[in-house]
Amino acid sequence: MTSHASYLLSQQGPFAQAFNNYQERQSQLAMTEAVEQALASDKQLLVEAGTGTGKTFAYLIPAIELDGKSIISTGTKNLQDQLFYKDLPTVFKVIGKTRKVALLKGRQNYLCLHRMDFNLQTARFTTKDTLEQIVKIRQWSETTKDGDLSQVNFLKDDASALPFVTSTADNCLGNDCPSFSDCFVAKARRHAMDSDIIVINHHLLMADLVLKEDGFGELLPKADAYIIDEAHQLPDVASVFFGQNLSSRQLMELSRDCLLAYHAEAKDCSDIKLYADTIEKQTADLRLLMGDEVPRQFWRNYLEKNDIAEHFEQLEQSLSLLTEVLQGQAIRSRELENLAERAEALSSRAACFLSCDEQKDVQWIEIYRKSFTLNTTPLNIADNFNKAIAPYHKASWVMTSATLAVNQQFKHFQQKLGLYNAETAVFPSPFEYREQALFYAPRDMLNPASPEYTRQFIASCLPLLVASKGRAFLLFTSHRALNEAATILEQHREFNLFVQGQASKSYLLDKFRVTENSVLLGTFSFWEGVDVSGDALSFVAIDKLPFSSPGDPVNQARINAIKQQGQDAFFSFQLPDAIIALKQGVGRLIRDINDKGVMMIGDPRLIARGYGKNFLQDLPPMLPTRNQELVEEFLANL
Fold this sequence. Notes:
The chain is α/β, with parallel strands linked by helices. Helix content is 48%, strand content 13%. The chain has three domains: 201 residues, P-loop containing nucleotide triphosphate hydrolases (Rossmann fold); 135 residues, Orthogonal Bundle (Fumarase C, Chain B, domain 1), CATH 1.10.275; 204 residues, P-loop containing nucleotide triphosphate hydrolases (Rossmann fold).
């Protein structure tokens, strides 16, 4: 019996009448029936939906038809905006039904009126450029209805003004804030509480689950259905929220806010200034002692250095002393009370980084040019996640992505989140890959570890780039390789290069789509969530198989833990992660039933190593070839 949701998407339904040349997709109909059944029976359902399945409408329609509240979570803000501003209105219009919908983002996305005004009044603590940004934001604040800072066109993602005009869970004054009645975060959350469908992202979902578990209230209402799109990203996001971090930015902001409060309302308490200044200096000194900028490293390697351990202990003591002073002054204002709470939280966190249970957690550090961040990450989050969602056992959970399964099995994903009892389903792509795409593995490629590998990879790409007249993505597994490739390709003036890091992701994609002979170079942020269909993209090349770095402290600790359990870490952990990542990258090529193109993977291990077949069996069934001339001819005719 055909379900109501699948009828709506069928050739006899309203979508076929609303769109010209509409073709029903069997995978989409099957998926929407599975989602509908899961929502009706409070089940956990894991769904891999191949590219082109139409999974968004397949889960939106059951959510709209549900007599209850649904929360839809995405991995990216782009998809979040697309669902709210485009997909949901489209479905409402076609089926002639509407529900109350809310778009809710994390608090860092909304303007904080109190912090903006407070920092404008004490502008001596900001640079001229930052002050000018805040003044412009102040002008914008007079017209905005929702305070969503993504609408401020001149504001970059790393704008120096952002910490001065947004709040954090630490520094928010809540109901005691003088601007609470106009608070954009509070308004957005109140609207979400009253809505039938709430569109959020994974960071907000996990923040809410962790807050509720710790007994600190809630960010979201309880729902009857939780639908997680781009679910393959959820384990990494969850790992962040089940761990903790301490950053130089947090320390510097605490110090700065203490100095502001001292000058504004506690001038008679010189100890506030004394310890705030001390913490600022100790934080800066620590960064200097850490040396050069480095990627993720084990924190214990730095604690073993006597000078760093000694300075870190002194910093923790200063935080403890500042906490005592602020607690003594907290009765004077909500601002000082909040600062006391923040100092106590950072002091407690700092103490945790002086010791670690390495059987359960790994502690690591990232060192940037002027700052650092300490992190604690659980080795296994399955128990944490199960405990966090246990109160929602009467709700339905649907998790979907184009890349959840390995060889059509969900064991790897289920183990990460502890979802052992979830039902699973794979719905294949409707695309005719053997007719739409060639899969090209060039011959005689060097070992990927060779210092000449990237140069050879680009040399293999060049004749294909000429044949395709650009219209290409070159995807890399490291920034080093990307930068080397960009340097080589800059000598070839016939191509218009768009290189990750030179502008925002959205700008690069917009320019790529409308520019002839365009070649876009990117790392992992371009491997997923990027949709360029039609003639603009005909060639995608990936330099190496995307194995995560074994030197990464989190990976290394998890590999060691798996080995200690007598298991094979490569086949149970590293290989499945790499297969899912490669499936995402390959998925950039064919985005529509009319698309055609070439997928090239340069890494010779795909053919030469035994595990190469594990990758190949999970890729779309494109027509394979190792004949370069055939590939050039195919591209030239597109």
